[in-house]
Write a structure and sequence with these properties.
742 residues, alpha+beta, Calcium-transporting ATPase, cytoplasmic transduction domain A, 5 domains, 7-stranded mixed sheet, 6-stranded antiparallel sheet, 27 helices
C-alpha cells in the first residue's frame, strides 16, 4: 500500500446476505491499491486506498456497479434515521402483504377444523400477483444484480423458488390442469421472508445500542461564560479554551479541566468504573460524564471529534466493522453456497420427477430446497456477535481496536506486565528521609529540592512535592547537570553536590552504607543518595505504590491458566519486593525497552500466544511485538496507539475482563456457526426428501437469521466472571428490538 494511504467508511444499501457482502468485497479489492472489508452486520465497507490511484467517488461507483448503493458514513443520528425510515417502509410492505394473503391463510386454518371455505382460484391469483411482483420486486432486482456479476445470492433463491410456484399455478389455471395451485405458497413465502428481515433489522439495531447510549449521554446545550454572562449555546459551537459551567445532575458537554469548584463525577460510561471520581481544580473532566454534586467551572480542552467520547465511539465502530479470522470459513462457504443449492434443487427436481412421475410435486419439492437454504445465517454468525461484544467491552471501559484482537485474547498463554504504571500507580511518593551524621532532615530535604528543581524525572517531582508540603524553598544552584539513568550534580554556593542512584553517587567516590540501602530496597522502594563533595548527607526512599487491585487481578489471571511475568527497570531487590506484593513468581529486573521487545519476541518464538500490558512510551515497542497488547489509558498516547486493546480504567482486572469477554464471544460465535451450519445441513436434505412443504421451509429460512442474531444478543447479559445463557434459556426479541418473555 502506498504511504499516502487514505481511509473511507462507506454505508452500503441493498445487501441481503453473505454472498452480497462477499461479492462487494471482491469487487472493491479489484480496484488498484484498495483493501476493503465489508461487514454484513453493520452494512459498512471499511476501505483503505491510495488517493493517487483511486478516490471516494470511484469507490462509490464500484459499489453501484456491483448492484448496491453507498454513501460516505455520516454521524450516528443520520444513519439511524435512515435505518428507521427503511424499517418503517419494510414494515408497511409487510403488513400490506399480510393483508393480501390473509384470505388464503384463513382458508388453510379453517381446514384444520374441517371447515371448507374455499377461496376461488381466480381470487388467489389476484391476491398473489401484487405480492409476487410488487412486494417481491426487491428479490427480482437483487437476483438480477447478482446474476449480472456472475454470482448468486439469497434473492436469487427466493426469486426462483417463488416464481416456480407462482408460474406453475398460472399454467395450471390457464391450461385447465386438474392439479392444486400454489399461489398461497409463493405469496406466504415472500411474506415470511419479509417478516424475517424485519426481525433481523430490529435485532441489528439493538446490537449497536451501545454506541447509541454513549452518544445520547452528551448534552445538546452547554452553559458557556462569555463577557461575564453565562449563555446557553449548542455544544457543537464550543471551541477549545471556552469556559463552561456544569451544574449538579448535568452531563459534561466536552473534555476540559476544572478551574473552580469541587464535585464527584460518574465516569462509568467511559471507564466502566462504578465509583464516582472526585474532581477539583486542575483535574480533567470528560464529555458525557455525569456531575453528581457541586457546580464546577471548566476550561474546554477538546471538543467535537477530539473528545474522549468521540475516540471511544470511533474505536467501537472500528472494531464492529472489522472481521474476525474465524469468519474466513463462513466466507468461503458463503461464496459457493448459492451455486451448490441451485445444483441440489435441480437434482431434487429430476430425482422426484423420475420417482413420482409428477411434475408439480417434483417442482414444489425443489422449491422447498431453494427457499430453506439461507446464506444469511452463515454471514451474520460472526459479525453480529462482534458488534455486540465490542459494545459490551466499551461498557466495561475496554476499547478493542479490531475483532482479531478480541478473538486472539482468549488464546493467551503468557501475559507480560510492565511494573510502573501497570502494577503500580505510576506516581512515586517520598516515603523515607534518612540523614547521615553530617546532615539533618531539614537540610537533606532542602539540598535535595535545590538539585531536583530543574529536573523532570518522576523522583525529582516527588521531592519537590514533599518540599512544598513542608514549606521548604529550594536554594539557587549553578552548573546543573543530569546524567540519564544516573543522577544530578550542581554547585550550591560554589560547593559541588550530588543526587542520584547509589551506584551513581558511589562512582563519584562517596562511601555508602550498603546495608541501609538494601534494607530500603527490600521494602520495594527506590533509593537515591545525596552527597556534598565526598561526604554522604543521607538517603531518600520512594515507593510507587502497588495498585490495590493488582494482587487480586494477578491471582485472577493465574486462575485463568496464564503465566504472568513482570518486567521492571528497577534493581533486582526492588523488583523482587514488588513482585512479591503482587503475587508474581516470575520477574526480570533491570530491563531496558529493547530488552522488553527481545523478551516478548523470544516467548513468541516458543510458539505460544503472548500478551503484553504497559502504559509508557518505553512500552510501545514491546506492545507492538506482542500477539495481543493492552495499554492503560493513564499511559502515553504512543502506548495506546501501539496496543490492540485500550483499558480506560487503570486496573489489571480489565485485562482479565477482556480475556473473559473474548472467551464468551468466541463461544457465541461457535454456537452461531453451529446453528447456521446445522440448519442448512439438516434443512436442505429434509426439504429434498419431500418432508417440508415450501411454506414451512420459508418460515424456517426466515427464522434462521433471527435465531443467530438473537443468540448474539444474549451476550448483552455478560458481566465479568459470569456465564452467558444460551438461546433457549432466555427471551425472544420483537421486531422493534424490545424484549418479551418467551
Amino acid at each position: 500500500m502506498s504511504q499516502a494511504e487514505n481511509h473511507a467508511d462507506l454505508q452500503i444499501v441493498g445487501m441481503r446476505c453473505a454472498s452480497c457482502s462477499g461479492r462487494l468485497e471482491k469487487a472493491l479489492n479489484q480496484l488498484p491499491e484498495v483493501t476493503a472489508v465489508v461487514n454484513l452486520a453493520t452494512e459498512k465497507a471499511s476501505i483503505s486506498f491510495d488517493p493517487a490511484r483511486t478516490n471516494v467517488d470511484e469507490l462509490i461507483k464500484a459499489v453501484r456497479d456491483t448492484g448496491f448503493d453507498a454513501h460516505v458514513t455520516r454521524d450516528f443520528a443520520a444513519e439511524k434515521a435512515d435505518r428507521l425510515k427503511a424499517y418503517q417502509h419494510e414494515k408497511l410492505r409487510f403488513f400490506i402483504s399480510v393483508g393480501l394473503i390473509t384470505p388464503m391463510i384463513l382458508e388453510m386454518l379453517l381446514m384444520i377444523f374441517d371447515i371448507h371455505l374455499m377461496v376461488p382460484t381466480w381470487m388467489q391469483w389476484l391476491l398473489a400477483t401484487p405480492v409476487q411482483f410488487w412486494i417481491g420486486a426487491r428479490f427480482y432486482r437483487g437476483a438480477w444484480a447478482s446474476l449480472k456479476h456472475g454470482s448468486g445470492n439469497m434473492d436469487l433463491l427466493v426469486a426462483l423458488g417463488t416464481s416456480a410456484a407462482y408460474f406453475l399455478s398460472v399454467a395450471i389455471v390457464l391450461l385447465d390442469i386438474h392439479q392444486p395451485v400454489y399461489f398461497e405458497s409463493s405469496a406466504v413465502l415472500i411474506t415470511l421472508v419479509l417478516m424475517g428481515k424485519l426481525l433481523e433489522m430490529g435485532a441489528k439495531a439493538k446490537a449497536s445500542s451501545a454506541i447509541e447510549k454513549l452518544i445520547q449521554l452528551q448534552p445538546k446545550i452547554a452553559h458557556v461564560e462569555r463577557d461575564g454572562a453565562v449563555l446557553d449555546v449548542p455544544v457543537g459551537s464550543l471551541r477549545p479554551d471556552d469556559i463552561f459551567i456544569v451544574r449538579p445532575g448535568e452531563n459534561v458537554p466536552v473534555d476540559g479541566v476544572v478551574l473552580d469548584g469541587t464535585s464527584s463525577l460518574d465516569e462509568s460510561m467511559l471507564t466502566g468504573e462504578s465509583m464516582p471520581q472526585t474532581k477539583q481544580a486542575n483535574d480533567k473532566v470528560y464529555a458525557a460524564t455525569l456531575n453528581h454534586q457541586g457546580v464546577i467551572k471548566c476550561r474546554a480542552t477538546a471538543v467535537g471529534s477530539h473528545t474522549q467520547l468521540a475516540a471511544v465511539v470511533r474505536l467501537v465502530e472500528q472494531a464492529q466493522g472489522s472481521k474476525a479470522p474465524i469468519q474466513r470459513l463462513a466466507d468461503k462457504i458463503s461464496g459457493i453456497f448459492v451455486p451448490v443449492v441451485l445444483v441440489l434443487a435441480v437434482i431434487t427436481f429430476f430425482v422426484w420427477l423420475y420417482v413420482e412421475k409428477d411434475f408439480a410435486y417434483a417442482l414444489i419439492t425443489s422449491v422447498s430446497v431453494l427457499v430453506i437454504a439461507c446464506p444469511c445465517a452463515l454471514g451474520l454468525a460472526t459479525p453480529i456477535t462482534v458488534v455486540v461484544a465490542s459494545g459490551l467491552a466499551a461498557r466495561e471501559g475496554i476499547l478493542v481496536k479490531d475483532a482479531a484482537a478480541l478473538e486472539r485474547a482468549h488464546k493467551l498463554s503468557v501475559l507480560v506486565l510492565d511494573k510502573t504504571g501497570t502494577l503500580t500507580e505510576g506516581k512515586p511518593a517520598l516515603t523515607d528521609l534518612r540523614p547521615s551524621a553530617a546532615s539533618g532532615v531539614g537540610e537533606l530535604t532542602r539540598i535535595a529540592a535545590s538539585l531536583a528543581q530543574h529536573s523532570t524525572h518522576p523522583l525529582s517531582g516527588a521531592i519537590m512535592e514533599h518540599a512544598r508540603a513542608q514549606a521548604i524553598m529550594p536554594l539557587p544552584i549553578s552548573d546543573f547537570g543530569e546524567t540519564p539513568g544516573g543522577g544530578l550534580r550542581a554547585l550550591l554556593d560554589g560547593t559541588p553536590y550530588l543526587l542520584g542512584s547509589p551506584a551513581f553517587v558511589a562512582q563519584q567516590g562517596v562511601t555508602l552504607d550498603d546495608a541501609s540501602v538494601l534494607a530500603l530496597q527490600q521494602q520495594g522502594k527506590s533509593v537515591i543518595a545525596v552527597a556534598r563533595e565526598n561526604v554522604l548527607l543521607g538517603y531518600i526512599a520512594f515507593a510507587d505504590k502497588i495498585r490495590p487491585s493488582s494482587r487480586i487481578a494477578v491471582a485472577r489471571l493465574q486462575e485463568m491458566g496464564l503465566r504472568v511475568v513482570m518486567l521492571s527497570g528497577d534493581n533486582q531487590v526492588t523488583a523482587h519486593a514488588i513482585a512479591q506484593q503482587a503475587g508474581i513468581e516470575e520477574f526480570i529486573a533491570e530491563v531496558s525497552p529493547l530488552d522488553k521487545v527481545q523478551y516478548v519476541t523470544s516467548l513468541k518464538g516458543e510458539n505460544i500466544v503472548v500478551g503484553m500490558v504497559g502504559d509508557g512510551i518505553n512500552d510501545a515497542p514491546a506492545l507492538a511485538a506482542a500477539d495481543v497488547s493492552f495499554a492503560m489509558k493513564s499511559g502515553s498516547d504512543i502506548a495506546i496507539e501501539a496496543a490492540d486493546i485500550t483499558l480506560m480504567r487503570s486496573d489489571l482486572n480489565s485485562v482479565a475482563d477482556a480475556i473473559d469477554l473474548s472467551k464468551v464471544t468466541l463461544s457465541k460465535i461457535r454456537q452461531n456457526l453451529f446453528f447456521a451450519f446445522a440448519y442448512n445441513v439438516l434443512g436442505i436434505p429434509l426439504a429434498g426428501l419431500g418432508l417440508l412443504n415450501p411454506m414451512i421451509a420459508g418460515g424456517a429460512m426466515a427464522m434462521s437469521s433471527v435465531s443467530v442474531v438473537s443468540n448474539a444478543l444474549l451476550l448483552k447479559q455478560w458481566r465479568p466472571g459470569e456465564p452467558v445463557p444460551d438461546l433457549e434459556d432466555e427471551h425472544a426479541v420483537d421486531p422493534q428490538g424490545s424484549r418479551t418473555t418467551a
